[in-house]
Structure formats: C-alpha cells, structure tokens
Amino acid sequence: MAALHFTFDPAAVPRPCNFSDLPDLPAIAQLKARRQWVAWKYVYRDDGGKPTKPPFQPASGLPASHSNPRHWGTYDEAVARATRSRMSGVGYVLTSDDELTGFDLDNCRDPDTGEIEAWAQEIVDLGETYCEVSPSETGLRLIALGKVTASLKRDPVNVEIYGTQRYLTITGWHVPGTPTEIRPAPRTLAALQARVGAFDAEQERRKGAGQSAIGIPITEQNQSLGTRVSAPSLNRERVRHSTAT
Asked: Which residue intervals are annotated with compositional bias (Polar residues) in the record (predicted)?
C-alpha cells in the first residue's frame, strides 16, 4: 500500500470534543452497537502533572470499573451522564469478547500545527485501520479488529497496546487518509512490537555494558507482557456486536 502523506489541518479539530454528536463513521457505529460505554472527566493533579481521565458509570455517575459490566451503559447513556455532570467525554471499554484492540501513540503530535512525528507517521501511513486524535491532541489512537493476548506499555517509546481491562476515550477526530472502518491491522501491531523490541534490546545492551538505562526502567511485568503479544491475533475477520453482560 502506498504511503498516505496527508497534511493534518488542526483547524478541523473541534475544541472541546463534541462527544454528544460523534461523526457518522462506520468505526463509531461499530462501537456504538455495544453496551460498553462510560463517561470520563479530567482530574487535575496537585503537583501540576498530566491530568488523569478516570471513567464514571453512566447510570449513577460513580467511578466505573473496566472489569464490571454493570458499570457500563450504552453510548447514549454515557453521553447523557457526561452532559448532565459536565464531564469531559465518553469512552469505550475493551472486553475479551469484542474482538478489538486499541493502540496508543503518545506524545507524537503537535497540538497547534497537527504535525506528527516521523515514527508515528509511518504507523499512520500503513493505512490499515481507523485512527483518531486523542483528547489532548498530542497523541493518536488506532482501533483494530482482532484481540491481542496481553497488554503492552512502554512509556519511553510512547507505545501502549490494550486488548482488555482498559477503556478508550473516543473523540471521533478521525485522522484524514486513514480508514473510516475498524479493520485488522497486523502490520501496525508488528511495527509497534518492533519499536518496543528495539527499545528493550537497547536496554539489555546498556545493562550488559554497565551503562544507565534509557528513560523509565522496564519492569518484570512489562517484559512478560512483551513476550505474550502476537501479531497473528489481529488477523481476525469479523467483529461480534453482541451486548455485554
């Protein structure tokens, strides 16, 4: 597939996200079909650090768990809660039976110009599946058809991959030139695994040479997660739209 080479227009991104009227795209429709939605809001830290985005139950407005289906609702219910309680947006909870995986490319986009860093642009240019801009407008999120066997997170290289036990903020700020549908994305997964693998290998090399590690040390948990994710798992050809229980 040829590279897409699009120029992102930051003026086309509404501020704030109009979560009550997400665009009429096949990817959004796929997510709306399932009862796996929550509301969320920014919670700012006392130390001035990056705010968190905890989820909240559509029915009660209480904190939500990504592992308790009773805490979720429909898209419309999540919108109603976010609107009524003046929250920041709505999100979709990944589960073991929805055949979806979320990829986060963090700190890769200039929120003022829309310019995307080269490594992330290479991922976008694969053009395999739906991609949107994150709420902060500094990152990108891709949602792919197929389920990874475990999560993978490497902050120093700005990569996160989630299959379950996580909710995804949904903005609807579609990145032009990428598919409007959620599709299998094996090359996307392989490229992100390669990026993480190169980082891990460099960490091991530096450790063996008695040099200091790069960025945040890798935990044993992260190392085990990295060995369990397999690219072929994203070659699934369908999405099940059954209601979560």
From this structure: 219-233
